[in-house]
Design a protein that fits this description.
The protein is mostly helical. It contains 5 helices and no strands. Helix 2 runs antiparallel to helix 3, helix 2 packs parallel to helix 4 and helix 3 packs antiparallel against helix 4. InterPro entries: Hemerythrin (IPR050669), Hemerythrin-like (IPR012312), Hemerythrin-like_sf (IPR035938), Hemerythrin_metal-bd (IPR012827).
């Protein structure tokens, strides 16, 4: 999951708020591209991640502020810290040092599932409740198979 072999989307990341789920899918794609980028492609992949993160984090900030989400300050602060790390690595890349690109991507791949499960799931539930008056319904395909793949267990993979 978070090694250089890639970081792929799994329905386990679905939260039931479609705009957020779509943004998260794009985030996973950006991190995966950064993981697999060689030094020549790393600056462009990092810039794509930065562009995405600015939109992603800004969109969530706007939702939280407009809906008066109770935990918005903590959530925004976490996004700010992630963005600061990404921009710090971008400054190094601008100087020709790509040493920290893949470690950054691995850390983002490690960070995202917990952030989505804790902070973003609460926001998704809040947004659905505000808009529709109830909790989100999430239909996940092959979550057990995806979890086995993420854990690296060859015995639990679905048959081909």
């Amino acid at each position: 999951m978070s090694d250089d072999s890639g970081f792929g989307w799994t329905d386990a990341y679905l939260l039931g708020y479609q705009p957020m789920d779509a943004t998260h899918h794009e985030f996973v794609e950006c991190v995966d591209a950064l993981l697999s980028a060689n030094d020549a492609l790393a600056p462009a992949a990092l810039d794509a991640l930065i562009d995405h993160a600015r939109r992603h984090f800004g969109e969530e900030r706007d939702w939280m502020e407009a809906s008066r989400f109770p935990a918005r300050e903590c959530h925004i602060e976490e996004h700010d810290k992630v963005m600061a790390s990404v921009l710090e690595v971008r400054a190094l890349v601008a100087q020709g040092d790509c040493t920290y690109v893949r470690p950054l991507a691995r850390e983002l791949a490690r960070w995202f599932p917990g952030h989505a499960d804790q902070m973003d799931s609460a926001l998704a539930q809040w947004m659905v409740r505000k808009r529709l008056g109830g909790a989100p319904v999430v239909l996940r395909r092959d979550v057990l198979a995806n979890a086995a793949l993420a854990a690296g267990s060859p015995h639990d993979h679905p048959p081909s």
